[in-house]
Amino acid sequence: QVQLEESGGGWAQPGGSLRLSCTASGRYAMGWYRQSPGKEREFVASITYKGANKYHNQAVRGRFTISRNTGNTAWLQMNNLKPEDTGVYYCAVDVSNARLERPDYWGQGTQVTVSS
Fold first, then answer.
1. How big is the CA angle at 103 (ends 98 and 106), to the nearest 5 degrees?
2. What's the rounded mean pLDDT across residues 70-88?
3. What is the mean pLDDT of residues 41-55?
Protein backbone atom coordinates (compact mmCIF):
# COMPACT_ATOMS: atom_id res chain seq x y z
CA GLN A 1 0.00 0.00 0.00
CA VAL A 2 2.80 2.40 0.93
CA GLN A 3 5.80 2.33 -1.35
CA LEU A 4 9.26 3.29 -0.15
CA GLU A 5 12.12 4.30 -2.39
CA GLU A 6 15.41 4.02 -0.59
CA SER A 7 18.82 5.18 -1.74
CA GLY A 8 22.31 5.85 -0.45
CA GLY A 9 24.59 3.48 1.34
CA GLY A 10 27.85 2.10 0.10
CA TRP A 11 31.31 1.85 1.61
CA ALA A 12 33.05 4.16 4.06
CA GLN A 13 36.19 4.06 6.15
CA PRO A 14 35.87 4.13 9.94
CA GLY A 15 35.27 7.73 10.90
CA GLY A 16 33.74 8.50 7.53
CA SER A 17 30.23 9.57 6.60
CA LEU A 18 27.33 8.39 4.48
CA ARG A 19 23.83 9.71 3.91
CA LEU A 20 20.73 7.61 3.31
CA SER A 21 17.48 8.89 1.87
CA CYS A 22 13.99 7.48 1.70
CA THR A 23 10.85 8.72 0.02
CA ALA A 24 7.43 7.32 0.92
CA SER A 25 4.21 7.50 -1.04
CA GLY A 26 2.58 9.35 1.87
CA ARG A 27 3.38 11.39 4.96
CA TYR A 28 4.01 9.10 7.94
CA ALA A 29 6.37 8.53 10.80
CA MET A 30 9.40 6.94 9.20
CA GLY A 31 12.96 5.93 9.81
CA TRP A 32 15.43 3.09 9.56
CA TYR A 33 16.19 -0.31 10.99
CA ARG A 34 19.38 -2.22 10.27
CA GLN A 35 20.39 -5.86 10.24
CA SER A 36 23.72 -7.65 10.20
CA PRO A 37 24.08 -11.35 9.32
CA GLY A 38 23.10 -13.55 12.24
CA LYS A 39 21.71 -10.66 14.26
CA GLU A 40 18.23 -9.35 15.02
CA ARG A 41 16.93 -6.41 13.10
CA GLU A 42 17.72 -3.29 15.15
CA PHE A 43 15.99 0.06 15.36
CA VAL A 44 18.25 2.92 14.26
CA ALA A 45 16.24 6.15 14.17
CA SER A 46 12.81 7.55 13.45
CA ILE A 47 11.07 10.86 12.98
CA THR A 48 7.44 11.83 13.41
CA TYR A 49 5.34 12.64 10.38
CA LYS A 50 5.62 16.38 11.01
CA GLY A 51 9.28 16.17 12.02
CA ALA A 52 8.68 17.57 15.51
CA ASN A 53 10.25 14.62 17.32
CA LYS A 54 13.24 12.43 16.57
CA TYR A 55 14.36 9.18 18.13
CA HIS A 56 17.78 7.58 17.88
CA ASN A 57 19.10 4.29 19.15
CA GLN A 58 21.68 5.10 21.81
CA ALA A 59 24.26 3.16 19.82
CA VAL A 60 24.12 5.85 17.12
CA ARG A 61 23.15 8.88 19.19
CA GLY A 62 25.51 11.78 18.57
CA ARG A 63 26.75 10.24 15.32
CA PHE A 64 23.61 9.74 13.23
CA THR A 65 20.97 12.39 12.62
CA ILE A 66 17.57 11.83 11.08
CA SER A 67 15.71 14.64 9.36
CA ARG A 68 12.85 15.16 6.92
CA ASN A 69 11.23 17.73 4.72
CA THR A 70 7.62 18.92 4.87
CA GLY A 71 6.66 16.21 2.42
CA ASN A 72 7.50 12.53 2.45
CA THR A 73 11.29 12.33 2.28
CA ALA A 74 13.60 11.53 5.18
CA TRP A 75 17.39 11.46 5.43
CA LEU A 76 19.77 9.69 7.75
CA GLN A 77 23.11 11.45 8.03
CA MET A 78 25.66 8.98 9.39
CA ASN A 79 28.88 10.49 10.71
CA ASN A 80 31.86 8.98 12.52
CA LEU A 81 30.98 5.55 11.17
CA LYS A 82 32.21 2.46 12.97
CA PRO A 83 32.68 -1.08 11.65
CA GLU A 84 29.79 -2.23 13.83
CA ASP A 85 27.50 0.05 11.81
CA THR A 86 27.89 -2.36 8.90
CA GLY A 87 24.65 -3.96 7.78
CA VAL A 88 21.62 -3.67 5.56
CA TYR A 89 19.63 -0.55 6.36
CA TYR A 90 15.88 -0.72 5.78
CA CYS A 91 13.72 2.35 5.53
CA ALA A 92 10.37 1.81 7.24
CA VAL A 93 7.02 3.49 7.79
CA ASP A 94 4.59 3.13 10.68
CA VAL A 95 1.11 4.46 10.04
CA SER A 96 0.10 4.49 13.74
CA ASN A 97 3.19 4.73 15.94
CA ALA A 98 5.44 7.77 16.04
CA ARG A 99 8.35 5.76 17.46
CA LEU A 100 8.24 3.25 14.59
CA GLU A 101 7.76 0.39 17.05
CA ARG A 102 5.81 -1.79 14.61
CA PRO A 103 6.61 -0.74 11.05
CA ASP A 104 3.90 -1.45 8.52
CA TYR A 105 5.96 -1.06 5.36
CA TRP A 106 9.57 -1.67 4.47
CA GLY A 107 11.93 -0.54 1.79
CA GLN A 108 14.15 -2.92 -0.13
CA GLY A 109 17.21 -2.16 2.00
CA THR A 110 20.60 -0.71 1.19
CA GLN A 111 24.00 -2.08 2.16
CA VAL A 112 26.28 -0.03 4.39
CA THR A 113 29.82 -1.31 4.80
CA VAL A 114 32.34 0.32 7.14
CA SER A 115 35.85 -1.07 6.93
CA SER A 116 39.44 -0.06 6.47
1. 130
2. 97
3. 95
